[in-house]
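In the design runs reported in the main text, the only information available to the sequence generator was the tokenized backbone. The following block is the verbatim input for one such run; it is reproduced so that readers can re-run the procedure and compare outputs position by position.
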């Protein structure tokens, strides 16, 4: 960018929006977080953290020539329209996932970004986690040989409020989309086929909305490897995030993170802290690092490592998974 000063606007200030705003303010002194816009804006919070412009009107960002980038954390069903508007206003964009639940809508957003010549980075924060990066580097360098099996566990500590389910996009769109992106990121392979089995084992009321809360998915990858993803809406013991890549020369695994690594061994048993309870705690550093990449891309006028193409691929896998669940058979993604 020609202007050395990066000036950012926040579009959306719910839980994730507030987290991103506070991360920017605390970690990036070279950035001016000038404005925050939300239809239900917490004005007291915005004033407290020191954001100068606090508004419910999107024009506070689009009409300000000094704002050259925007972080979008509005509800998922608004992302495409917000990307189009912001791209049309010449703003570079960081957008939380998913861009949309429908592949064609994501393609529309990507075209708008391409036409405007702006940057679009998508919030697949796990790509910036140090544990996951170490696993990826071991795979990429050939340390474990040719990948044979990728085994991933992704389980939330507590089921969501039922009010969340109807507009969530469903378990595969809302929940598994990170895992679908991860399997591509870790291996460098594309998903060629997916088979999904699911059930309502946590809460039958989730099934009343046409969704499931528990699933196991098997994936055939372009490099010949097999992926296995198991997911659930509730553990009751913490945020369960584990993965392993097993290859021809060995394996590498990332275990759950915990508040401390202290282990108590006594006559009653061996005890560890429970895993971190929320994704915000588990991926705290990754959320900062993804914004760090966005800022570096703005400074160097470079494309980010995770963009609208990656968002599209993850959603295409989610669509195929839903189709597989309905048909009770494998679904091909070969192009």
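Verbatim output:
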């Amino acid at each position: 960018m020609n202007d050395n000063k990066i000036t950012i606007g926040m579009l959306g200030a719910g839980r994730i929006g507030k987290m991103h705003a506070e991360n920017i303010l605390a970690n990036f002194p070279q950035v001016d977080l000038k404005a925050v816009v939300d239809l239900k804006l917490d004005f007291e919070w915005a004033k407290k953290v020191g954001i100068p412009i606090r508004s419910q009107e999107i024009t506070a960002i689009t009409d300000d020539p000094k704002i050259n980038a925007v972080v979008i954390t509005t509800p998922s069903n608004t992302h495409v329209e917000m990307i189009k508007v912001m791209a049309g206003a010449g703003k570079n964009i960081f957008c939380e996932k998913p861009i949309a639940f429908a592949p064609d809508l994501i393609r529309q957003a990507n075209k708008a970004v391409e036409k405007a010549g702006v940057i679009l980075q998508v919030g697949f924060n796990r790509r910036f986690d140090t544990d996951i990066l170490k696993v990826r580097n071991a795979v990429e360098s050939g340390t474990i040989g040719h990948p044979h099996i990728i085994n991933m566990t992704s389980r939330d500590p507590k089921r969501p409020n039922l009010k969340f389910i109807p507009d969530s996009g469903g378990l595969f769109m809302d929940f598994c989309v990170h895992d679908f992106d991860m399997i591509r990121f870790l291996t460098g392979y594309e998903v060629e086929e997916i088979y999904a089995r699911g059930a309502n084992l946590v809460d039958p009321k989730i099934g009343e909305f046409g969704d499931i809360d528990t699933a196991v998915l098997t994936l055939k990858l372009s490099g010949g490897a097999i992926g296995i993803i198991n997911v659930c809406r509730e553990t009751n013991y913490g945020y369960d995030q584990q993965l392993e890549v097993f290859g021809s020369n060995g394996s590498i695994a990332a275990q759950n993170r915990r508040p401390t690594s202290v282990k108590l061994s006594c006559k009653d048993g061996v005890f560890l802290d429970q895993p971190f309870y929320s994704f915000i705690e588990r991926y705290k550093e990754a959320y900062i690092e993804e914004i760090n990449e966005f800022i570096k891309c703005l400074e160097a006028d470079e494309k980010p490592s995770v963009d609208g193409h990656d968002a599209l691929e993850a959603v295409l896998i989610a669509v195929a998974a839903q189709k597989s669940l309905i048909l009770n058979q494998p679904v091909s993604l070969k192009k």
